[in-house]
C-alpha cells in the first residue's frame, strides 16, 4: 500500500539513505567546521533511525518481493549496529580532529556503511544480501584508506579491498550455485525447495561451502581472518574502532540468518564448517594475541577469538543459541566501545597510543583510566562479575543444551589461554616498574566521556539487573 | 530471629567501605584515613558476623538467615544467600582474618595504599559471598571473582617473582574453575535448578555424576590444593605480601574443602564413592611428599606453604571418609589451619618487616632478643604440629579416629604425615628461635610491638580456645554435616 507512507516497512532504511545524502550535501556546502557539524548531524540521523526501527512494525513488505524480511532478531541487531555506529562516531570525533583528518565524508561513509549493514541484516534474498554486503564493504574500503598520505592506511585499504573483493567473488559464485540448483534466490523459497529433500546434492554443498567462506571472511573467522590484524593496524585508530564495533554485528547477524533460514534443515552440512571455524577462531585468537605488542593487533585477535564464541552459539542452533548470540554481541559491542573510547583519548608523548608497553605507569598517572581498562580487560576475558562473563555463560548454556560438551570444554580452555593476554595488559599497567617517565595524556571530550561512562556502567552493573537485556533477547525470533 | 537482611549486610559492608575509600583522595596525609576506613569496615563486618553466630539455631541442619530474590527472569537463578553450620565458620574465619590483614599491612604497605585496601575489601566481599551463596551460579561468580583482587595483591605488592607467581595463580585456578562452569550448566540442564539445597537431592545418573565430579574435582583440587595440582601454591605464597599469604592460606584454600563438602559429597554421592580411593591415594601422597619437601626448604614462607598442602591432605582424607568424625575433623582442621597458618605467615611477616629476608639461615637465636615473639610463635608452631590443647590436635585426632573406620593404611599415612609435620616445624623453630645469635645483624632486632600484639594475641587465644573447647565450634556444624552424611548414605544404599 504505497499510498500510506507510514505503512511501508522500509521506512528506517529509506530515511537513512535520504538523510545520508542530505548529510553529504550539508557537509559539501559548509565552509567551516564541516567535519564536526556533519558528525553531529550523522549522530542525530542515526538516533532518529533507531526510533524508526523501534517503532517499525514491518506489517507490509510484500511490495519488495520478499527481498527483505522482518523479525525481532533483525530489529535487535539493527538497533545494535546503529548504536555501535553512533558510539563510534562520537568517540572518534576528537581523534579525527587531533590527527587533522577533517574530511566530512567520514561520517557520511559511516552512515552509508550502516545503511548497508541494516540491509544486510534484514536481507531475505541472495541478491539483496549481496548488494547490501557490497554497500557496506565499499564504504569501509574507502574508510580504511581515508588517510591518503599515510602509507599504512593506504596499504590497509588496498589489502582490505583486494581480499574483500576476492571473498565477494567467492560469495557470489556460491550464490550462483545455490540459485542454479534450487532455482530461487529467496530464502523462504530455497528453504521450501530444500525441505523436499533429505540431503543436499553436490552442487548445493559446493554453493554452501563457498557462501560460508565468503561469510567467514566477513566475520573474520579463522582461517579467513588474515586481513583483520593488518587492516586494524594500518587504518587510523578511529576507523579501527568502527571496524571492531559495527561490521561484526551485521556480519554475525547475517551468518546466523543465512544458516538458520534457508538451510535450517541441513544442520549437519553447515554445522561442521561452523564448528571448525569456531574452534580455530577461539584458539588462534587466543594464542596469536599473546605475542602482539601493538594494541590494535591485539584487539584484532581478541575480536577473532570472540567470533569463535559467537559461532559456538550458532553451532548450537537453538533458541538459546540466538539468545546467547544477541547477549554476546551486545556485550562485545559495549566492551569494544569502552576500550576504543579510551584508546582514542590516550596520548603518549603527543602521539596516540599504539604500543601496549606504552601503557606502563598508567596506573600511577591516571588511576581511573587504568582501572577502567582493567575492568574492560577482565570483562573481555570472561571473568565474573562483569558483562563479558554472562555473554560466555549464555553461549555455553546454548552449547550444552545441544549436548556439545567437547566444544564447550574447548571453549573454556581457549578462554583460559586468552585470559593470559588480557591479564598482560593489566600487568603492564599495574605491576611493571616505571623506568622512564612516559608522558601519558588522557584528554577526552564530554560526549565521549558520557559514552565511556555509560558503557562502563553497563559492564559493571549488568549483573545487578540482567533481566532487562535477557528478556529482550529471549523473545527474539530469527 | 533477625528480620533484616543480615547476611547481605555482611557480604556488602566491605564493598560499601571500598566505595567510600574510592572517593578518598590518596596522598601522604590521607593514606592513614584510608587505612582507618578499611579497618572500620572490616571490624564492623566481623562484629556483625558474630551476631550470626550468637543467633545461630543449633538445632536446624539447613540454611538459616535465608534471603532469596529472583535474579534472572528466564532461568531459575536466584540471589539466594544463607548460612548453615558448614558455612558459618568459614564466614567467621574470613571476617576474623581480614581486619588482622589490614592491621598487618598498616606500616609495610607504602605504595598504592588505596588500591591495596580496595583489593582487600573487595576480596572480603567475594569470600563471604561465596561461602554464603545457596545458588550455584552466585557461588561460581564469587568463586571466580576472588581471582581478581588476589591477582592484583600478588602482582602489585608481591616479591621479586611476583609477576610469574600472579599469572600462575590466576591461570591455574581459572583453568580449574571454568570446567566447573560447564558442570554447573550441565546440572542446570538436567534439573532446571541452581539451588544448592535442591541439588543435594541427588538427581543425576551415575555416568553424569562421574563427569560432573571430575569437573568439580578439577576446580577444587586446584584450589585446596591437592598433590599434584599444588605447584601454584608455593609460588603464590612466597611472592604474595604477608597479608596476601594470610588470606590465601587462611581462607582461599578452604574454598576447595568447602566445595568438596557441598558439591562432591552433597550432590554427587555415587561418584564420590567411586572416586574415594583416588582421593585417599592423592591425599596420602600429598601428606608424605609435601612434608618431606617442606623439610628441605630454606625459605620460611615456602616451608609453611608446603606444610599447608600437607595439612590440606588431612582435610581431604577427613572429607572423603564421609563419616561424622572424619567430616567434623576436616572442618576443625580447616578452621584450625586457617588460624594457625595465617598466624604463622603473620609471624614470618614480623621478622621479614625487620630484616627483609625469609631465609632460615639468616636467623637463629631470636629468643634472646624477642622472647614474646618466641612465645607466640611457639603456640602457633605447636598448633600446626597438632599438640593436644591446641586447635590442630582436634582436627587431626578426629580425622584419624574416622579413618580407623575406613582403612588402617590411611591411618598410617595420615599419622606418618603428622609425625613429619612435627619434624619440620620443630626443626624450623629450632633454627630460627633457639640458640645464640650468630648473625650480627640480628643484634638489635626489636620484639613485637603493640600493633603486632593486637594481631597475634587474638589468634593465639582462638587457637587455644579451639583446642580446649572444640564443642563451641563442633555443635553448630554437627547437624549440617549429619544431613550431608545421611543423604550420602541413602544415595549409596540404593
Describe the 3D structure.
The complex is a heterodimer of chains A (478) and B (494). With 478 residues, chain A is mostly helical. Chain A is built from 19 helices and three strands. Chain A has helices spanning 11-29, 34-55, 72-98, 105-122, 126-144, 151-182, 187-194, 202-219, 227-234, 237-260, 267-290, 295-316, 319-343, 362-365, 367-381, 387-401, 405-430, 446-461, 467-474; strands spanning 346-348, 351-352, 440-442. In chain A, strands 2-1-3 form a three-stranded antiparallel beta sheet, with no helix packed on it. The two termini of chain A are 25 Å apart. By secondary structure, chain B is mainly α. A two-stranded antiparallel ribbon of chain B has the order 1-2. In chain B, α2 (31-54) runs antiparallel to α3 and α17 packs antiparallel against α18 (408-432). Chain B is globular. The model of chain B has no long low-confidence stretch (mean pLDDT 89). Classes of the chains: A mainly alpha (478), B mainly alpha (494). Chain A binds chain B through residues 323, 363, 367, 378, 383-385, 389, 393, 396-397, 400-401, 405, 408-409, 412-413, 415-416, 419-420, 423, 426-427, 430-431, 463, 466-467, 470-471, 474, and chain B through 71-74, 112, 115, 140-142, 144-145, 147-148, 151-152, 155-156, 162-163, 166-167, 170-171, 174-175, 178-179, 181-182, 185-186, 188-189.
